[in-house]
Write a structure and sequence with these properties.
single chain; alpha/beta; 22 helices; about 50% helix; four-stranded parallel β-sheet; 4 domains
Length: about 450
């Protein structure tokens, strides 16, 4: 029988990803970009499967439906930016919904097309100063975590007059929850860790030695999660130390389209991380976005960099790492404390790592524990959930998740993404409060 070469409606093949051609001047050509946006938007218009994921798709479909032709050709190209503004690169459309991703011949990669549009806009110098400041997480965190400064910043972030000024100066919504800053950072708390005193035992892809990338967010705003991660790893006979030094992973700047800054962060981080890997260390971080940056985005930006690919192979989600150890019989399963009902929000940047629900699987090992997984975006995504222009939309996106949490009536609510967890708990009035899954595991261990 002759092979059917007619156009396929959807694909049964595993999705693949093309490298990001960001160093090519044509990547930023507006005419070529507009042509590709129109092509992909037309495919999305004919499918509409992703309408419930975020605000980018309803924005696109409203533009089409309200146009003179009711087709994409009736939408003004100047309005394409309205769609781009609503994409925060969660990657769910690519990984969980779209039937036309590569290797399908239509070659749809909606998130990276939005990234290209953001990068072209940034290259033209159109990024606002407020957006640059809000995405400079390392600089802001370093300043706000100075011992005498941290309590002042935290108090100011709760005061209405200060919030009015933040709204006016940086476009931060007065009702949005802002991070709490700690002078006693994760790196200060764990500076004593050097990996000594533990005989590393390899298992599966793991080598039994982990260097922690504390992340610019967790280091100053969620240091307890990093401390708990180190405690759980050490309890399971895994040698632990901090990465010698680190800069931001680059995700905030990636979401801004500032690819040159991403490259600068990569130049600071990758040599240090690659050296640790060559010394026998695996790598992990307590935020899925940072893990994804090293496992996916940097390798797609630098596909020929051997050190980037080396780091990719040895960077793990924390629960992915623990599950590998469990499969080899090396994870301790004596838990003196049950957790009861746990409502677990599955963070987008963890879902798209294609590792499966390893957080749920590990927590389910605790006797007397029932985990309800909620696989839907929180709508936070760093700055999207705090900016005046998008905070109301982020709350709308969060509401279905918050309803599921309430329905579960849990003893604990947890999200692997601390920003998503805080955003959802804020909408629930902290009833229940957000917790880290790794902190729950430490609690179950009683350590």
């Amino acid at each position: 029988m002759a092979e059917d070469r007619s156009p396929r409606e959807g694909s049964l093949e595993a999705p693949t990803r093309h490298p990001l051609d960001w160093k090519n001047p044509a990547f930023y050509d507006q005419a070529a970009l507009d042509a590709e946006l129109e092509r992909v938007f037309d495919i999305c218009h004919g499918c509409r499967r992703c309408v419930s994921l975020c605000q980018a798709f309803p924005t696109l479909f409203d533009l089409v439906d309200e146009s003179p032709t009711m087709e994409v050709d009736g939408v003004a190209k100047a309005d394409y930016a309205k769609v781009v503004d609503q994409c925060y690169l969660c990657d769910l459309c690519y990984q969980t919904k779209c039937p036309y991703v590569p290797p399908h011949p239509w070659n749809v990669d909606f998130p990276h097309l939005m990234l290209r549009a953001k990068a072209a806009r940034h290259k033209r110098g159109e990024t606002k100063l407020a957006a640059k400041i809000l995405s400079s997480t390392t600089a802001v965190g370093t300043l706000a975590s100075i011992p005498l400064v941290a309590p002042i910043v935290n108090a100011a972030n709760r005061a209405k007059p200060t919030r009015a000024l933040l709204d006016k100066a940086l476009g931060v919504h007065p009702d949005a929850r802002l991070p709490t800053y700690h002078a006693d950072t994760a790196r200060r708390r764990l500076k004593h860790l050097d990996g000594s005193g533990v005989a590393a035992q390899p298992a599966g892809r793991t080598r039994g030695k982990v260097a922690l990338f504390t992340t610019c967010y967790c280091n100053v705003s969620q240091p307890q999660a990093v401390e708990d991660l180190a405690a759980v790893l050490r309890h399971n006979g895994i040698a632990v130390k901090l990465v010698e030094r680190e800069a931001c992973c680059g995700m905030p700047k990636l979401e801004l389209g500032d690819l040159d800054s991403v490259a600068k962060y990569k130049a600071a981080n990758i040599p240090v991380l690659a050296a640790a890997v060559r010394d026998g260390w695996d790598l992990t971080a307590a935020i899925p976005s940072c893990v994804l940056m090293f496992k996916q985005e940097l390798p797609l930006m630098f596909p020929d960099d051997e050190d980037v690919l080396l780091v990719k192979r040895h960077f793990f989600d924390p629960f992915e790492y623990l599950w590998q150890r469990h499969q080899a019989g090396l994870l301790k399963t004596e838990f003196p404390s049950a957790l009861g009902k746990v409502a677990w929000h599955v963070a987008c940047h963890q879902r798209v790592q294609n590792i499966g629900p390893k957080t749920r699987d590990v927590l389910a090992l605790v006797p007397g524990t029932q985990v309800t997984a909620i696989e839907r975006c929180s709508g936070h995504d760093g700055t999207y959930g705090v900016k005046r222009a998008t905070y109301p939309i982020s709350r709308k996106i969060a509401q279905p998740v918050e309803a599921r949490i309430t329905q579960a009536a849990p003893d604990h609510f947890a999200s692997d993404c601390p920003m998503a967890g805080a955003h959802l708990a804020h909408g629930l009035g902290d009833q229940p409060p957000a917790e880290s899954p790794i902190s729950l595991l430490r609690q179950a261990y009683g350590i």
